[in-house]
Amino acid sequence: MSKGKMFALAIALMVTPGLVTMASQSSQANSAKQASQTDSHSKDKMTLHHETGKVGSLAADELVLDYTWRGKERKTAFTLNSNTKKEGNVEKGDRVMVYYHFENGHRIATELKAMAAIPKTEANKS
Question: For residues 97-116, b (16+ Cβ closer than 10 Å) or e, as one string?
Fold first, then answer.
């Protein structure tokens, strides 16, 4: 074996453990970073969602929203409580936007906003 090849082999053997160590440290740092991000997300404010549709039914503690999603008629129930803000007069048949979050598998309405009715045009009259 020539001196050049032996020298290259020696260098490769010296550098390889350092690269492995660096890769291992980088992997551990990424794992720690992901764990801290997961912890911070769980401490963040609950994710707020919204849905728009017509009020199908309305009680003191529940609102059922009728809407169309992907061409299918849907009904979704939302729990109302003393913290639910109501913007405008909301009655059965009115078009509303519901802001909500999930809590213990239930949709908890945080805000109801009355919206203007969609005017019917010749194209969408039925």
Answer: ebbbeeeeeebbbbbbbbee
